[in-house]
Amino acid sequence: MSKKETSRADMMLTEPLPKVITKMALPSIISFIITTIYNLADTFFVSSLGESATAAVSVNASLDQFIMMAGSMLAVGAASFVSRLLGAGNKERASHVLSTSFFLAMCFGGVIMALGLMFKAPMVRLLGATDTCESYSIQYAEYVLLVAPLMAANFVMNQCLRAEGSAMLSMIGMGIGGILNCFLDPLFIFSFGMGVAGASAATAISKAVSFVILLFPYLAKKSLLHLSIRNFRFRRNIILEIMTVGSSSMFRSGLAVVSAILLNNIAGGISDSVLAGIGVSTKIMMFPLSIILGFGTGFQPVAGYNWGAKRYDRVMGSYRFSALTAVVGSAVMGLLIWIFSKNLIIIFAGENQNMLATGMLCIRLQSLALPIQGWVAVVNMLCAGLGKAKGALILSTSRQGTCFLPLVYPMEWIWGAGGIAAVQAVADVLTLFLAVPLMHRLKREIADMAEQRGEG
């Protein structure tokens, strides 16, 4: 075992859990926050072009989610498998998993790019573009589609770097691209006079830069794993394991796309102001969500590694610390966002009262449900880290699927724009009814495994 592998094993198996989870989570949280900032940067700079342009950026958020669906299934499945393989000491097979996922993600992203460029107008209409924002939506989609293969591959490299304990390298790759986007946005939108297309071009360049930076550790052999076409293995056992666990992320991303399209179409049917208000509030709420997801992403490989190493005491210890931290942290963030909700929305809404009212209501209701979302995210990450595909699938598809889709039309019919603003918060509360019994069963299984090993 190399010095790097020994150091990683010592960290995962012997260091105090709060220390190792925090060490793993902080770079992930920072990279998620930076990504959220540059997503908001697009909206902020484009908002000066009018509500229809702002609505177009909100519509194309669904395109980003669709590309994410292509990469995240492979990324999450590969990361879970890689963590468990490294915990069991099988580095060679872990490299096979990484390489297979990477090249498949490039292929899936290529398919999305080709189809999207051929059918741009029908695609943005399907995503929820109205007559007044369709042209803006097409302009924004063009450059993003060109880098779809790189975006899909970024997810795989990002997750697998975290899975091997190199969260700092992952943060650098995602972070530099995000910061670059914030500088390129005003340059392309205003200085070059490209308008909405400039925001898309800035995003595309930033994604390409992130791709190069994330690829570097693998090419320079700074990582534990080896990325190479020679390590590509299209074998049933590898593909099945990746797809089984990763399917939860694919369905989550797929349902996020479906729910966003549905929400965009309903909100756009009311007005561009409501559509823009929902879109902006969703992006603002990505701040606390990015912290929750970043923390969960730091916790997941710790749980997966110790599960592979049969250290069930540390699996449960990592869950207890993560669950408590997520709930308390989410409650604090929810309170702060509630207090400053008007100040946050007015940055994008200006004097548009309809957009301001819709956005404020959406943000405040989601803030109330944020502690629930934090805990459910930890349970979801635990399922994914341990390779419990069924549990991960149930929770991944609940927030914007089984607990969301049945509510959209009834709530809009009862409450109009207010119902659209409230539907996500209500769905977050309902996920508790799935997560509580699932976690109860998982705790019993871990306790049984620990007892068999003599830890109980």
Name the features:
mainly alpha; single chain; 456 residues; globular
Tell me what you see in this structure.
With 456 residues, the protein is mostly helical. The mean pLDDT is 87. Helix 2 runs antiparallel to helix 9, helix 10 packs parallel to helix 19 and helix 13 runs antiparallel to helix 15. It has 21 helices and no strands. 61% of the residues are buried.
How many helices does DSSP assign?
A: 21
Q: Tally of extended strands?
A: 0
Rg of Cα set = 21 Å
Globular, elongated, flat, extended or rod-shaped: what is the shape? Answer: globular
Question: What fraction strand?
Answer: under 5%
Could you spell the SSE succession in H and E letters?
HHHHHHHHHHHHHHHHHHHHH
The average pLDDT is 87
Low-confidence stretches: none
Structural class, please? mainly alpha
Query: Helix amount, in percent?
Result: over 70%
What is the rounded distance between the termini?
Answer: 30 Å
Query: How is the biggest beta sheet arranged?
Result: none
